[in-house]
């Protein structure tokens, strides 16, 4: 090559290299260069069956809009294979970060592996993804919730027969809740103050499973049950529907999520308590963390939770006990539910004054 043609060759080579590095929508699975344009967040949800998950979805969308991020939400409807496929699809579309509320915390480890192969960080949302190198865990204090349920039951029914109804065994949270419950109840069992006559998990958190478990416990114990520690409001509702009329309101029943029908039962007297987990701070903090991770920025955390493989940096939000005494100061004050909806089955002259 002579000196006259060398500059032309170098210009052509530079143009070729530039073309190889800057890819359009079809290149590199449709990804665009990091740091250009809005952050794209892929959100994989297990279900929208329960009211609380519908809230999470709406709040994800709201917060993404507020911070200028794009998001795509896909729902697996309790199917592990579908959730895995949907996450693969989100990765193919070139999302910068994944938020995953797993159906099965063990199987979802493969989602983390797939994302990391594409250098996409993963946030485990509400439920911990087990045995994986997941980047961040955003949840409420799950063990604490179980402890709150059990302590409330012991404070109000310190002696007698107890029924424990867990959630789905594929959900790591269900296991953690029972661990929390038992950490409080076991000393009372050892003292002989209470007897756990039934301790079972409700498949897929189904109310119908809780109904079956409760009916069986009532039959075997001649209706001699003082407390039902149900792990969420769906199972609480199932358990209550199994109670004969003379026991409704007399058997203490716990719950979790502050679902509208549960809070309605609480003010009517059929369900005793629930654990209120404000969803807005949870969903907002997940989106805010996702934006930071996508940009390569540091997410500040104060705690870690071990998932079997590593101590996962965690943002853990504090839940609240909710019973008839503080409905006004919690869900209604926060705008989580409206007074007229909560008390619609209660005579209006018995409504609290605002």
Q: Overall pLDDT, averaged?
A: 91
Annotated CATH architecture of the largest domain: 3-Layer(aba) Sandwich
The named CATH superfamily of the largest domain: Response regulator
The tally of strands reads 13
CATH topology assignment of the largest domain: Rossmann fold
Rg for CA atoms: 25 Å
Low-confidence stretches: 3-33
Shape: globular
Strand content: 15-25%
Biggest pleated-sheet summary: 7 strands, mixed
Secondary-structure element order, N to C: HEHEHEHEEHEHEHEHEHEHEEEHH
Could you give the order of strands across the largest sheet?
2-1-3-4-5-12-11
Salient structural properties:
12 helices, about 40% helix, Rossmann fold, alpha/beta, four-stranded parallel beta sheet, seven-stranded mixed beta sheet, about 350 residues, globular, 13 strands, 2 domains
In short:
The protein has 354 residues and is α/β, with parallel strands linked by helices. It has two domains: 33-134 and 279-317, Response regulator (Rossmann fold, 3-Layer(aba) Sandwich); 142-277 and 320-345, 3-Layer(aba) Sandwich (Rossmann fold), CATH 3.40.50.2300. The chain contains twelve helices and 13 strands.
Write the layout of secondary structure elements.
Blueprint: H1 6-21, E1 40-45, H2 51-67, E2 70-75, H3 80-92, E3 97-101, H4 109-117, E4 122-125, E5 136-140, H5 142-156, E6 160-166, H6 172-191, E7 194-201, H7 207-220, E8 227-230, H8 233-242, E9 252-253, H9 260-268, E10 273-276, H10 279-294, E11 303-306, E12 311-317, E13 320-323, H11 328-332, H12 339-342
Parallel strand pairs: 1-2, 1-3, 3-4, 4-5, 5-12, 6-7, 6-8, 8-9
Antiparallel strand pairs: 10-13, 11-12
């Amino acid at each position: 090559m002579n000196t006259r043609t060398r500059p032309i060759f170098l210009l052509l080579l530079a143009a070729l290299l530039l073309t190889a590095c800057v890819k359009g929508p079809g290149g590199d699975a449709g990804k665009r260069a990091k740091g250009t344009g809005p952050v794209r967040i892929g959100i994989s949800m297990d279900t929208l069956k329960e009211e609380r998950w519908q809230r999470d979805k709406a709040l994800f969308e709201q917060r993404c809009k507020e911070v200028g991020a794009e998001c795509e939400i896909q729902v697996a409807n309790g199917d592990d294979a579908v959730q895995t496929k949907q996450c693969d699809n989100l990765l193919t579309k070139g999302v910068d970060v994944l938020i995953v509320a797993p159906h099965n915390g063990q199987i979802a480890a493969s989602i983390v592996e797939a994302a990391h192969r594409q250098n996409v960080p993963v946030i485990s949302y509400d439920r911990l993804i087990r045995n994986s190198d997941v980047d961040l865990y955003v949840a409420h204090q799950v063990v604490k919730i179980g402890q709150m349920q059990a302590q409330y039951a012991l404070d109000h029914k310190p002696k007698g027969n107890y029924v424990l109804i867990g959630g789905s065994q594929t959900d790591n949270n269900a296991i953690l809740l029972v661990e929390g419950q038992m950490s409080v109840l076991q000393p009372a069992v050892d003292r002989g103050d209470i007897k756990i006559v039934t301790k079972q998990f409700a498949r897929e958190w189904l109310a119908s499973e809780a109904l079956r478990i409760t009916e069986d416990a009532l039959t075997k114990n001649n209706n001699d049950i003082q407390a039902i520690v149900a792990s969420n409001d769906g199972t609480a509702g199932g358990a209550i529907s199994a109670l004969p009329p003379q026991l409704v309101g007399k058997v203490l029943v716990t719950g979790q999520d502050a679902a509208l029908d549960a809070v309605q039962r609480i003010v009517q007297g059929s369900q005793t308590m629930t654990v209120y987990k404000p969803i807005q701070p949870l969903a907002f903090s997940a989106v805010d963390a996702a934006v930071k991770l996508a940009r390569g920025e540091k997410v500040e955390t104060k705690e870690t939770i071990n998932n079997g493989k590593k101590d996962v940096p965690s943002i853990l939000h504090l839940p609240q006990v909710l019973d008839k005494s503080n409905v006004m100061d919690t869900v209604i004050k926060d705008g989580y539910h409206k007074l007229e909806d909560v008390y619609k089955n209660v005579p209006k002259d018995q409504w609290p004054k605002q």
